[in-house]
Design brief:
Shape: globular
Distance between the termini: 56 Å
Strand order of the largest sheet: 4-3-2-1-5
Oligomer: single chain
Number of strands: 13
Structural class: alpha+beta
Number of helices: 4
Largest sheet: 5 strands, antiparallel
């Protein structure tokens, strides 16, 4: 079934593209008198640029796909939700691929706004916070401890990593660079963690952006 433009840009089994058509399959068992059985729908997408339109995603049914960007554009929090969803997959596509495809497909991501305290005008937000939830997976309190960390997507940007402190630093640093590259280095993300074992990681991430390092989430320290 061919769809009409304008098209939604969807996340389909780790691929990003315009949803241009849907392939529907079913078994019509008239002899048994049970009608249509085993019905399924699969997206056909246009990935843009170097890929010809018409890629069938036959390993992801339509109800397992997600709308990433409607024709009129999307907001930062929705993109963070899709990136969180991507991390939950067996083979994540990664934020770099998702954002790169969005740019190639002309998706507009609207940054949040807040009211300027002095003028009362609505201004775009460029400074964000990422509070890291932490689980120690192995070797609690040891130099080679393994942790799993993730942020809340409602901070605007989603981060997730698993490994030693050094591995987590490099992983989150890379994810941060992907976001900053997309937004032309206009954004900063202050990392926060209440886990004392990650204090050095958080302070290094903040120092890299010229932010005075502090790890803990006491708002009075930031005012």
């Amino acid at each position: 079934m061919k769809l009409d433009a304008p098209y939604n840009v969807i996340y389909a089994g780790g691929k990003i593209g315009r949803h241009v058509a849907t392939l529907m399959t079913w078994n019509d068992d008239e002899e048994a008198g049970v009608g249509i059985m085993d019905a399924a729908s699969y997206p056909v997408i246009d990935e843009g640029e170097e890929f010809p339109a018409g890629t069938l995603i036959d390993y992801a049914e339509l109800h397992d796909c997600r709308v990433l960007c409607p024709p009129e554009g999307t907001n930062l929090y929705w993109v963070a939700k899709i990136i969180e969803y991507d991390f939950q997959q067996l083979e994540p596509a990664g934020a770099e691929y998702i954002l790169e495809r969005m740019k190639l497909l002309g998706c507009k991501i609207v940054l949040p706004t807040e009211k300027n305290k002095e003028t009362g005008d609505e201004v775009q937000v460029y400074d964000f916070e990422a509070t890291l939830d932490t689980w120690c997976m192995r070797g609690f309190g040891k130099p080679d401890s393994v942790y799993r960390v993730r942020s809340n997507r409602w901070g605007g940007f989603y981060f997730q990593s698993e490994g030693t402190r050094d591995e987590i630093y490099h992983d989150l640093s890379y994810q941060l660079s992907v976001y900053q590259t997309y937004f032309s280095d206009l954004i900063t993300v202050r990392f926060i963690s209440d886990d004392i074992d990650l204090t050095e990681v958080v302070n290094r991430l903040n120092a890299k952006q010229g932010i005075e390092g502090f790890a803990h989430g006491d708002k009075s320290d930031r005012d």
